[in-house]
Amino acid sequence: MNMLDILHHPLWAFCAALLALVVRLQRRGRWDPKACNVRLKGKTAVVTGANTGIGKFIALDFARRGARVILACRSEARGTAALEEIREKSGNSDIHLRLVDLSILDSVREFAKRILEEEKALHILVNNAGVSGLPRQITKDGLDASFATNHLGPFLLTNLLLDLMKRSAPARIVTLSSVNHKKGHVDFAHFHGENLTYYMDKVYNHTKLHNIICTNELARRLRGTGVTANSVHPGIVLTKVLRHYPLMVRCIFNFIGFLFFKSPEEGAVSSIYCAVAEDTEGITGKYFDSDCSLVLPSPLARDPALAAKDFEMCERLTSKL
Ligand SMILES: NC(=O)c1ccc[n+]([C@@H]2O[C@H](COP(=O)([O-])OP(=O)(O)OC[C@H]3O[C@@H](n4cnc5c(N)ncnc54)[C@H](OP(=O)(O)O)[C@@H]3O)[C@@H](O)[C@H]2O)c1
Ligand SMILES: *[C@@H]1O[C@H](CO)[C@@H](O)[C@H](O)[C@H]1NC(C)=O
Ligand SMILES: *[C@@H]1O[C@H](CO)[C@@H](O)[C@H](O)[C@H]1NC(C)=O
């Protein structure tokens, strides 16, 4: 028997299916959004990157609960397709598309300005949009494009919407980080694309660390306002997140992912839990794992002195001089 024959053996398929089943059972969340009857009638939510992947299912859940949902997307065509799908599946017509490119600070400012003009309240903000594996690209703001998209754009957006959220309290801010933050480092030169190695998910890992660090600092600053800020890990989820990776990497990810990873719908669960569940009311400055449990992020993500410094640095980088 040669190698290929062994691979064709039905036992392999059986073992793989069994393993997939075990993994599937094991990663079942502790919380089921379908069993949660929290309604969001009269509430307004913004979800960034809501046209695909995890974000689309977060927005769909809010829509089904009766919220007014604003899909913050960069493409009119992709955003409109998601808008129609979410309206149809939820039967909720109070779903709206607003365009924003999170990698461009002026685009974020324009988006926020329109929200502040048009919305009377904002109860939920989900910072979901993100990229991984981008090559080196410096934006017109002088920022590394991955850092701008994953961290500085969402950081500015959150800060610009903060007063509206305070007036709407209780309100919740949920930021999608990743378990990958554990491999990230803090080097303020990174923001400008300096000292970075553009290899696989290395830059992404740094950006996801900053997500947690600044969310924790934000939570400290928001104490007593009724606005909470937390980070979540959605799990390893089969989405288009690797779209900028080599074909071979994507093939392997999709193949393994098909068997073992979460679906985008399952990947949305920890974010929905954090944004709507009664259990999480009042919880702030924490990090939720993909099974909805509270876990400690890496030591760097828990250093309050570093957080204060990072937050100030990000404020400076996103302020209009
Ligand atoms: N998938 C995973 O295994 C995994 C694991 C851990 C954490 N996460 C996090 O989960 C979040 C969602 O990821 P996903 O897996 O659903 O990824 P995805 O399928 O690639 O979706 C990403 C979303 O972000 C949007 N986006 C990207 N760049 C943007 C920009 N400059 N301005 C506005 N929107 C932009 C995309 O819009 P377009 O469609 O227009 O590109 C898309 O809607 C990310 O923050 C990611 O880091 C994912
Ligand atoms: C790059 O990293 C090195 C070593 O980690 C550090 O000494 C240096 O200051 C960094 N560069 C910039 C521009 O900050
Ligand atoms: C990024 O983080 C992931 C998960 O912790 C790790 O497996 C990967 O090796 C890291 N990437 C790099 C290039 O360090």
Shape: globular
Mean pLDDT across the residues is 94
Category by helix and strand content: alpha/beta
Strand content: 5-15%
Instruction: Describe the sheet with the most strands.
Output: 8 strands, mixed
Helix content: 40-55%
CATH topology: Rossmann fold
Named CATH architecture: 3-Layer(aba) Sandwich
Poorly predicted ranges: none
The helix/strand series, from N terminus to C terminus, equals HHEHEHEHEHEHEHHHEEH
Total count of strands: 8
Protein architecture, described:
By secondary structure, the chain is α/β, with parallel strands linked by helices. The chain has one domain (42-235, 267-318): 3-Layer(aba) Sandwich (Rossmann fold). The chain is built from 11 helices and 8 strands. It has helices spanning 3-8, 10-26, 53-64, 76-90, 105-118, 145-167, 202-221, 247-260, 264-267, 269-276, 304-318, and strands spanning 44-48, 68-73, 95-99, 124-127, 171-176, 227-232, 287-288, 294-295. Strands 3-2-1-4-5-6-7-8 form an 8-stranded mixed sheet, with helices on both faces. β7 (287-288) and β8 (294-295) form a beta hairpin. α6 runs parallel beside α7 (202-221), α6 (145-167) crosses α11 (304-318) and α7 (202-221) crosses α11. The chain is globular, with a radius of gyration of 20 Å. The chain binds NADP nicotinamide-adenine-dinucleotide phosphate and 2-acetamido-2-deoxy-beta-D-glucopyranose (2 copies). Residues 49, 51-55, 74-75, 78, 100-103, 128-131, 149, 176, 178, 233-234, 236-237, 239-241 line the site of NADP nicotinamide-adenine-dinucleotide phosphate. NADP nicotinamide-adenine-dinucleotide phosphate binds next to α3.
